[in-house]
Amino acid sequence: MKSITLHNSTFYNGDCISGAAEHLPDNSFDLIITDPPYGIEGDKLQKHYNRKEEFVVDGYVEIPQAEYAAFSMQWIKQAERVLRPGGSIYIISGYTNLIDILNALHNTRLKEINHIIWKYNFGVFTRQKYVSSHYHILFYEKPGGNRTFNLESRFGLVEKTDDDRSCNNADREDVWVINREYKPGQIKNKNELPRKLLTKMIQYSSNEGDLVGDFFLGGFSTAKVAIGLNRRAIGFEISRLMFDTKIPEMETITPGYLVPSLRSPTIKETKNLGQPWTHKDYANLTLKFNALRTQGKTKKQIIAELGEELGRGRWAIVKALQKSDPEPGNKTKNDTLSDYF
Prior knowledge:
Shape: elongated
Oligomer: single chain
Strand content: 15-25%
Helix content: 25-40%
Number of helices: 11
Strand order of the largest sheet: 1-2-9-8-3-4-6-5-7
CATH superfamily of the largest domain: Vaccinia Virus protein VP39
Largest sheet: 9 strands, mixed
Number of domains: 2
Number of strands: 9
Distance between the termini: 63 Å
C-alpha cells in the first residue's frame, strides 16, 4: 500500500479496513473524524443534484447499498480498535444508511455522547416531499479513559450575545447551522466537509499535538484542518486519482496555519467552579440573597453579584438557590425562594 508522510502525518492510498488492520496500532488515535461513502450511488449524484462537475476529481468509490451494513461494521470495528480509551469519534452520515452505521456502533463498546444535526444551505429540490438539507453527526467515545472536551476553546462561559444568551451554550447546542463551501473553478472531491465544521469538532475534542484520524480522506479536508490546527493526521484514501491529486496540495500547507484565524475566547477563572456545596455554603447563600433582595435589585443583578462574590457560575447559583432550604423553625417569608424562580 502506497503511503506518504508529510508534516508528521501519514496518508495511505488504499482500503481503510485492510490498511488499518495492517498499519495502525491499537489505542493510538485521540480523535477520528470521518465522512464515509454515501451508499446511494454517490458516484452519480450530479444527475440528482443537477451539478456541473467539471472540477470534481473522478474516481469516487461507492459502496453498493446491499454491502453497506457489512462494510460499516468492518470499518467501525477498526476505528474502535485504534481509538484510545477516552478518544472521540465523529461520523458524518446521511439518513439513507444511517441505521447501518447505528447498528454497527451498537455492536461496539463505543458510547454515544451526542447525536448532532448539521443543517446546511443546500438541499435537493423536491415537489412531493420535504427538502432534505441536513446530515447526522454521531459523536461517540471509547470508554476507559479521560475524554477531551475543551469547554471554553471557542467561547468563554462568561460571554454573552446581544440578547444576553450564553455564547458558549449556543455554540454547543446539538443543531449546527454551518453552510457548505462553494469552490467554483477549484479542483475538489465529490463532497467535501466545510472547514468551519471540522474546526469546531477538532477544537472541542482534541489538543495540539494530538493524532486525528480519517478513514475516508476524500479531499483531505480533515487532514488539512487538523494540521492547520497543529494536530497530526493519519488517513486513508482508496482512490489513486484523488490521492495523487491532493498530495501536492498537502505538501504546500504549513502546520498551524489556521491558528491565527481562531477567535480568542474570554475566559474568567471561577475559583469554586464545580466544587460541592456544603450546608454552610447554602446558608450563606440564602443570607446574601435576602440581603440583596431587600436592596431592590433584580434577579439578574442578584445572581451576577452572588456569582462574582462566591466564585460560582450563574447556573450553579440558580440551582443552589432553588435547592436552599433553611432549617425548620428558622424560615421567614424572605427565605422562601421557590416562588422567586
